[in-house]
Amino acid sequence: MAERLKNQASAYLRQHAGNPVDWWPFGDEAFEEARRRDVPVFISIGYAACHWCHVMAHESFEDPGIARILNRDFVSIKVDREERPDVDSAYMAATQALTGQGGWPMSVFTLPDGRTYYAGTYFPPQQLQGTPSFSQVLEAVSGAWQDRRSEVERSAEQIAAHLASNQAANRNLLGNLTAAVPPADAGAGSAEALDAAVEALAAAEDSEYGGFGGAPKFPPSPLLRFLLAHASSGSLTAGTAAALAERTLTAMALGGIYDHVGGGFARYAVDRRWQVPHFEKMLYDNAQLLRIYAHYSRQAAKADLKSLALRVTSGTARWMAAELGVAGGAFASSLDADTLVDGHRVEGATYVFTRAQLEAVLGAGSAALDLLELDADDGASHRLPGSTLRLRAVPDEAQARIWDDARTALAEVRSLRPQPERDGKVVAGWNGLAIAGLADAALALADAGLAEDWMLPAAEAAAGYLLDVHWDGRTLRRVSSDGQAQGIEGLLEDYAGAAEGLFALYAATGNTRWHNAAQDLAAAAVERFLGPEGLSDTAQEPEQIRQAQGGYTAANPLDDAVPSGTALLAGVLLSSSSYGGPGRHRELAEGLTAHVRRAGPAIPQAVGWSMAVQRFILDGPKELAVTGTDPDAVGRLLAAGRGAGGPGLVIAHGKADGVGLLQGRETQAPALAYVCRGMVCRRPVDTVPELEAELAAGR
């Protein structure tokens, strides 16, 4: 039994290799086995860092009695949602349709063709407060299959039809992408929609604690990208967007969701105040937030907020490199929420401190201790073995130095504790976001006089890994493990995420290897995911997923924890055309974000990245080409451009070598900067004040 899972790229699957359950990975063979045996399929979906996934595994999947029922009455499939988001998305939609909620672990029961007939999330080992035990669920679901087959099949047909209608709604939202968007109509209504979205967000803001909505609170990363982009525009609501971003970013940077000792952000906070995190740390969150805080450090209105943003930028990048870096230069997926202590999984055990422990390290009544806001009950109300660490207020320069010394002392103590496990699989799209984050962070820190020389080479090493291990010149693989690509072809989010990172890396380095690879990935994404039926999130959809969704498929244009593949592709295509790629790419970018005119005012938190791209479209986007013979003079113009141009600025420098935006602009002058829109450039300038004035024009 263990043979099927023990060599999988996914740490989550490997965690279950020793279970008495006869697990199969997701694939045709498992469903064929269900048909052969005439039994239903049980699909268990989770991920390696998931606390409740570990709980259900220990309570149920390690139990020989539960295993006997599963092995007798079902074919059991174990799915890593991070490795197979296509599978997770389809069955999450089914679970939500049946129960009104979703989450992980997810427990789905299907026909041998993949259609769902029953679903839930975590089931306890014994009946609890009206929730049936897992064994009761198994007996009932198996009994329905054996005794009421026609009823089960009707239910599966109804659920599939419902999911097909959801897919049709996604396709209708995106519209006909195979037809060119008339340039005259491309931006009609978009500016008004973005202003309305900002006003809707202001109404939904938690004005007391920052962010949007109540507990639990997740970092709204794609939305923050839009707010920062809009804040640097000339819109009437730019000031509102800036204030919304400032309050959320400050609250997260001070709160317990940020690790003030080791750096990096947890997946979410369980409370409104961002105080108590759910301790798993994900690459995709930190990659996005790294880039966002780097951009915010350029836009922050106050010196203390700028300093805070720069410290968070540096801390997050250092954590990412130290804790998620793998051999070859790429980044692993996550750190677990739990730590194994004396044979038991304890959430947060690595991170929290009791007051007594803090006093022993820092000294009772120390200045560093005064900077902290601690749980009055040392975490007991949240069942934690100590308090999370949060800063009371934005520290000034002297307080920041005090905390830095304290952080170093606490880190030494923490390093002696048991550490959370790491899911070492490399995901292409998330690594693309990490490359973009590191590239932009390296520049933000350098421009602030805080250069960290390791950071840009780290971004280049990760980019080299993606191109060497995941990309063969035509096909991108989604995951790798130990330097070997495994499993499915990359999804739309992988192609677009990788290209996003490579374009950002080119803007930082001027190395055309990254530009050319990004253009190749952008072209491949259009070829593989855009067809006569519209845009798809998968190039080769499994038949079981198609059946589960009623034979209908379409790309989901709404963001989740990561930007939607649709939104990422739109941004990549806009960059492609701005650098001199096909004009068709700009038309597609406009079409892929046209839905924000309707969705932005109505559901702004679901279309943040698309709104950011639409903001960049409305702004031109602004393009900056810098050439010259004096590296120092060129560097000064580039730094000025980055500071004044906003997060949507497209930057080209170095040798032309296939970069259309640079063609014909080679010069023997020390340095010249060309500000362009649609590759139509204004007269070149050679001083920082002139460049800043050019970039400010038209705001």
Write up this protein.
By secondary structure, the chain is α+β, with helices and mostly antiparallel strands. The longest helix has 26 residues, at 149-174. The radius of gyration is 25 Å and the shape is globular.
Short summary:
With 699 residues, this protein is of the alpha+beta class.
- The number of helical runs is 26
Strand count, sense and closure of the main sheet? 5 strands, mixed
- The structural class is alpha+beta
Query: What is the global morphology?
Result: globular
List the helices and strands and how they pair.
Elements: H1 11-15, E1 23-25, H2 28-37, E2 41-46, H3 51-61, H4 64-73, E3 75-80, H5 85-99, E4 106-110, E5 116-120, H6 134-147, H7 149-174, H8 190-204, H9 221-231, H10 238-254, E6 268-269, E7 277-278, E8 281-282, H11 283-299, H12 303-324, E9 334-335, E10 338-341, E11 344-347, H13 355-362, H14 367-370, E12 372-373, E13 390-391, H15 397-415, E14 422-423, E15 426-427, H16 428-447, H17 455-470, E16 477-481, E17 484-489, H18 492-509, H19 512-529, E18 530-531, E19 534-535, H20 543-548, H21 565-578, H22 583-592, H23 596-602, H24 608-618, E20 622-627, H25 631-645, E21 650-653, E22 672-677, E23 680-681, H26 688-696
Parallel strand pairs: 1-3, 2-3, 20-21
Antiparallel strand pairs: 2-4, 4-5, 6-7, 8-9, 9-14, 10-11, 12-13, 15-16, 16-17, 18-19, 20-22, 22-23
